[in-house]
Amino acid sequence: MISTPVFTYILIAYTIFMALVGCANDKADTPITIPDNIVITAQDKDTVVHPPKKLKEVVSRIQTTTPDSLVAFARTLIGVPYLYASIDPAKGFDCSGFITYVFNHFNIAVPRSSVDFTDYGAAITEEQARPGDLILFTGTDSTIRVVGHMGIVESVKNDTLFFIHSTSGKSKGVVITPFEKYYRSRFVKVIRVFADELFD
């Protein structure tokens, strides 16, 4: 169990870090909501509670959920507003909160913070990307090469990749965006969490 002062310092450090490189723009007056189903661990990472007890369960859940069903469910959330540090669709999502909510809908536990996806899944090329893969970006400052934003590959049409994400930018919520100039400058990598055989 983390003591209250340590937890406070971790929360403050995390808030400052995310304000600099995370999904949010400068939102100093936005309240930070910590949902009841989040745990801060000693490694300074937060993870959704209710992870499966055995690795076999994780593999089973990922193998019984198709990338297409994940994307179809993600599309039902288009228009949900942006809200920093939230995974509540009634209030809004930040970028990783959106990812967490979508995967948790299928009982698949994933990291809660975008930076924790850095070494998650298997890295693939942009050309290999298919709907259901995850695309990772830096925060709004592309010179800081740390994952700070992410989305789900929604489709690939005429050699253009489209991704669905919760953005704090002009759209302020869950939208589908083409992977073009602005996001290319922030691109880190595409990762695959589903088994290759689940893709068409």
Please characterize this protein's 3D structure:
The chain contains 5 helices and 10 strands; from the N terminus they run H-E-E-H-H-E-E-H-E-E-E-E-E-H-E. A hairpin with a 5-residue loop joins strand 1 and strand 2. The strands form 3 sheets. A 6-stranded antiparallel beta sheet has the order 5-10-6-7-8-9. A two-stranded antiparallel ribbon has the order 1-2. The protein has a two-stranded antiparallel sheet with strand order 3-4. It has a single domain, classed as Alpha-Beta Complex (endopeptidase fold (from Nostoc punctiforme)), CATH 3.90.1720.10. It is an alpha+beta fold.
Summary, kept brief:
The chain is of the alpha+beta class. It has a single domain, classed as endopeptidase fold (from Nostoc punctiforme) (Alpha-Beta Complex), CATH 3.90.1720.10. It has helices at residues 4-21, 55-64, 67-75, 95-105, 181-186; strands at residues 38-40, 46-48, 87-88, 92-93, 122-124, 134-138, 147-157, 160-167, 173-178, 187-192.
Reported for the largest beta sheet, the result is: 6 strands, antiparallel
Count of individual beta strands: 10
- Outline, from the CA principal axes? globular
- Walk across the major sheet and give the strand order: 5-10-6-7-8-9
Following the backbone from N to C, one meets helices and strands in this order, namely: HEEHHEEHEEEEEHE
CATH superfamily: endopeptidase domain like (from Nostoc punctiforme)
**Which structural category fits the helices and strands?**
alpha+beta
Name of the top-level CATH class? Alpha Beta
Q: How many separate structural domains?
A: 1
